[in-house]
Structures are given as structure tokens and as C-alpha cells.
Amino acid sequence: MNDTPGSDERETIADFFIRHPLWEDALALVLGTAMVALGITFYSHAGLLTGGTVGLAFLLKYLAGWSFGAVFFVINLPFYALALWRMGWAFTLRTLCAVGLVSLLAELTPHWISFAALNELYAALFGGFAMGLGLLMLFRHRASLGGVNILALYLQERFGFRAGAVQMGVDAAIVLASIFVVAPEKVALSVLGAVALNMVLAINHRAGRYMGVS
């Protein structure tokens, strides 16, 4: 019997932290990035946008016709320095893998599925939900999609700000700026989609609520 003061409390707290094995982290990376790529496919087919580096990649795709996957990968390169400095090697490597997978799957998914008809409102909402669920999987396994995701996670861990709230503010600003690129009704639907995406994060990803670690 351990009579050390506070030992029972420490053991009880430790029981709440469940370390994910490597295979769970790998599976979460694949499933999470596949969900994000599905949402991107919805948005691309409907001509919508979202926030963050994904939104910037959409803007360049619509403006210049460049490959979404290649642009998305390149845009994220500067953010790895912040990830390495503030979040460590493990988080940075997982994020690099996640960004690479999304870049690849975003190009491949349209060849695997097609839409005879896709309602734009449905695409905005459920594309946003799909991306939100994908990001939630990545966040809970100590990964992200770079860019604003890294900043949002850092602010949550350092200052306790909700990652979803930070992401929502930045995403809304990027989507509103797209009014010069796409039709106003597309912008309105994109704002709705950004809200749907970030609601998933704001409701389900709060500091201290989820105790799984990698």
C-alpha cells in the first residue's frame, strides 16, 4: 500500500490519460485526411471555399487554375518552423504527413467518386462537417493540417483559447475576402460551411476535455 501523500490522486489523474499506440495514430492520420479530402471534393465541385491554408489553396486554384494539392502543400511549408519551435518534432512530423496525405487525396478523390448532382447548400454543410470531423481526428492524435491549425492549437495549449474559436475567426476573414473571386452567393454558402466546420471543433475539442495523448 502506498501511503505517500497525494499518490492516490496522481494515480487517479493518470488513469484519465490514455496513450494512443502508433497504429492508432497512423489510422487516425489516414481516416482524418480522407475525411478532409472528401470535404474538399464537395467544395471543389460546388465552387465553394473555406478558411485557412485550404481556403488560400482554393483561391489560387480558382484564380490561376493551379493544382490544389500542390499549392496546399507549398503554402504550408513556412508554418513548419512554428510547429517545430512550439509543438515539437512529433507534432511537426505528424502534421507534415497529414498535409502530404491531404494534398495527395484531394487530387485522387475526384477520380474515385463523381456527382451527377450536388446541392450547393448540402455541399457547404456536409463538406464542412466532413472536414471538421477529419480535423478533430487529427487534433486528437497530436497532428494538424498546418497553417492556422498550428496557430490555433498553440494558442489553446499556451493560453487556453479554444482552437475551434480561433480557427473560426480566421476562417471567416479568409472566406469574406474571397468575395472578389467568387459570386456573393458562393461566399455566403462558404461562410455557412466554415461555421459548420468550426462548430464541430468548438463543441468537441476543448482544452482538458479529451485526455488521449500520442
Automatic annotation (TrEMBL):
The lineage of its organism: Bacteria, Pseudomonadati, Pseudomonadota, Gammaproteobacteria, Pseudomonadales. GO terms for cellular component: plasma membrane. The keyword Transferase does not apply. Keywords: Cell membrane, Membrane, Transmembrane, Transmembrane helix. Coiled coil: none annotated. It is found in: Cell membrane. It holds the Pfam family YitT_membrane. The chain crosses the membrane at residues 26-43, 63-83, 95-115, 121-139, 159-181, 187-204. InterPro entries: UPF0750_membrane, YitT. This is Uncharacterized 5xTM membrane BCR, YitT family COG1284.
